C-alpha cells in the first residue's frame, strides 16, 4: 500500500502542473499568477505540509523555479526567490538543493558585470546564500569556490545593504567551513579593502568585522595586507568603527593561530584604543589588552615561571593614578618595543596632525608597559620627544611631557642626566627644555640630589639664560619649577644659582607671562627653603656694597 504522505505530494504536484507550465508562458501576468498559484498550493494550504513533504515537493519544482530567476520581469523573479527562501527555512535537508541553487546565483551575482539589475533582488539573493550557509554549515565545503566568486562581486556592490549582507555571509562561511575557506580567503581581502572606507559607517563596521573573521578562519598572512587600512580606521570619526578595529585586533591577539608573527604590528593598533576620546573604547581596549597579557602568560608559563612565582615588589615610585600592567603585557611590549618605536618616532613628526597626536598617545602607552626597560631605547625615544615637544598641537606636547615624565619615573638620573644635558647643550632648543623639565618632574628627590649641580650648571649657562627669547625663557623657568617641586629643601645647595638665573631672566624678559612666572618661582624658592619670604631670599643671595 502506498504511503499516504506520497499521495499528498503527488496530489500537490498534480494540482500545480498547470502552474509549472505557466512559468514559461510568454504573458508576464500568466507567469506571475502561476508563481502565486504554486505558493498557495504548497505553502498556504491547510493543513500545512510536513517539512519532509515540502522538501519532496520542492525537489520536483526547484529547476523551473530557478529558471524564473532569469525572467525579465522583476516581480516574477522576486516571487520565485521569496518562495524558495521560505521553503528552505523549513525543509530538513536544505543542502540537497545546493547543487541546483549555487550555480544559478553565480550566474546572477558572480559575473564581472552586474546581471541582476534590481538592488532589492541582489540583496534577497545574498540573504538566500546566508540562509544556506547557516543551515547547511559543513555541507557548504564543496561550494566555497563558487561562494567566494559571488562574494568578491557582492562585497563591492553599489548598494550598501548588499555590501553589509555580503559581509555577514562571508563571516558565516568562514566560520562554517574554515578548512575549505582557508584556501580562498585571500581573494576576499581586496574587495573588503575596497569597501573599508565606504561613506556609511555601518558598512565600514561590517567590513572590519568581516576582515577579522576572514583572516581568523582563513590565511593569517593577509594581516600584512590589512594592517595599514585598519590603522587608518583608528582615525575614523565614527566611534563604532574605531571600536570595531579594537575588537578585531584584540581577538586576533588572543586567538589568531600565527599571532606571534604579527605581535609588533597588532599591538600598536590595540594600544591606540587605550587613549581613545570615547570612554567605552578606552575600557574595551584596556580589557582586551589585559586579556592578551594574561593569555600570553599562560602560554609561556615555563619561561615566566620564576617571575610568576616570585614577582618583584610593586615599585614605590610610580605614576600616580596608574595601575601597572600585568606581566604578560609588559613582556609583550618588552619583546616588541624595538620593532614598534622607530615607526612611532617617525610618525610623531608627521605632517598630518591627527597622526602626530595618535603617535604621541601611543608612545606614552607603550612606555608605560615598557617600564624601566625603556632605558635601552632612551636615545631613540629622546630624539623623537625633542622634535615633537615643539609641535603646534598642544595635545602632542601634552603627551610628550607625559612620556618624558615616565623616563623620570623609570630611569635613574645616573643614566638620563648626561644624555639629556648633552642634548640641551647641543640643541639649546625649547624642545629639549620641555623634555628636561618633564623628566625632572617624574624623578624622585633622593635620586636627584647628587645631580642637581650638573643640571643647574647647564641651565645657567649664559648661552641659555641670557637669551631674550620669551619661549625659551618660559621653558627654562619650567625647569626651575620642576627642580623646586621635586628637590624641595635640597634646593638650598643650588639656591644661589637658581636665584641668579631667575634674576637674569627677569632683567631680560620681554613678556609679562615670563615676568609673572619669575615672581612665582622666587616665592616658591623661598618656600622650599623655609624662608619667610622673597625678601629673605634676596638677603641671602645679595650683599650691600657701601660706597667709599
Characterize the structure shown:
By secondary structure, this protein is mainly alpha-helical. Among the domains are: 237-308 and 324-411; 442-548. Helices cover 71% and strands 0% of the residues. The protein has helices at residues 4-15, 17-22, 28-42, 51-67, 74-88, 98-109, 119-136, 144-154, 160-176, 178-181, 186-195, 201-216, 223-233, 239-255, 263-272, 279-299, 301-309, 327-347, 353-370, 378-388, 394-410, 413-427, 430-442, 445-448, 452-459, 462-465, 470-487, 495-508, 512-528, 534-541. α22 (413-427) runs antiparallel to α23 (430-442). The longest helix has 21 residues, at 279-299. The termini are far apart.
Concise account of the structure shown:
The termini are far apart. The chain is mostly helical.
- H and E order: HHHHHHHHHHHHHHHHHHHHHHHHHHHHHH
The structural class is mainly alpha
Question: Mean pLDDT score, rounded?
Answer: 93
With helices defined by DSSP (H or I, 4 residues minimum), what is the helix count?
A: 30
Oligomer: single chain
> What shape does the CA trace take?
elongated
InterPro entries: ARM-like, ARM-type_fold, DAAF5, HEAT_DAAF5, TPR_DAAF5
GO biological process, one term: inner dynein arm assembly
Region (Disordered): 302-322
Domain Dynein axonemal assembly factor 5 HEAT-repeat: 316-508
What's the arrangement of secondary structure elements?
Blueprint: H1 4-15, H2 17-22, H3 28-42, H4 51-67, H5 74-88, H6 98-109, H7 119-136, H8 144-154, H9 160-176, H10 178-181, H11 186-195, H12 201-216, H13 223-233, H14 239-255, H15 263-272, H16 279-299, H17 301-309, H18 327-347, H19 353-370, H20 378-388, H21 394-410, H22 413-427, H23 430-442, H24 445-448, H25 452-459, H26 462-465, H27 470-487, H28 495-508, H29 512-528, H30 534-541
